[in-house]
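cron nightly-structures :: item 1 of 1
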Amino acid sequence: MRNRKSLSDGDDNNDINISPMIDMVFILLIFFIVTTVFVEESGFGVDRPNPVDQPEPQDEDKENVNIRVDKNNQIFYNGEKVALGSVRPKVSQVLAADPEAPVVVEAQDAANAGLVVSVMDEARLGGADIISLSSATD
């Protein structure tokens, strides 16, 4: 019975040393801070008009290209319902007659943003260098 230890000896060493764990946490923290890549998201700039400026008077004889996207995701060209594929020929037809004709895309608030961008892409492929985007009311 000499090999048995009694519970009443009081020589128990139950201390847990957490210093190595804290060291590992700090090393991991430093590793993640050093390896983090700070990426700045790119976007495109929007020229907003100054509310004090007066709009330039437009020539009344110029034909405008007005394209409207409503909340039901329908496309209207000068009040006439058209498909997305017919935007490019209509824009190029007007710009062939007058290369300085303004192209305006009006989008309602609930319109699909992807469709609005597709309409703007079709207008650009039709020859429009400058496309104005405006918010349409219901």
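cron nightly-structures :: done
The first strand starts at residue 65 and ends at 69.
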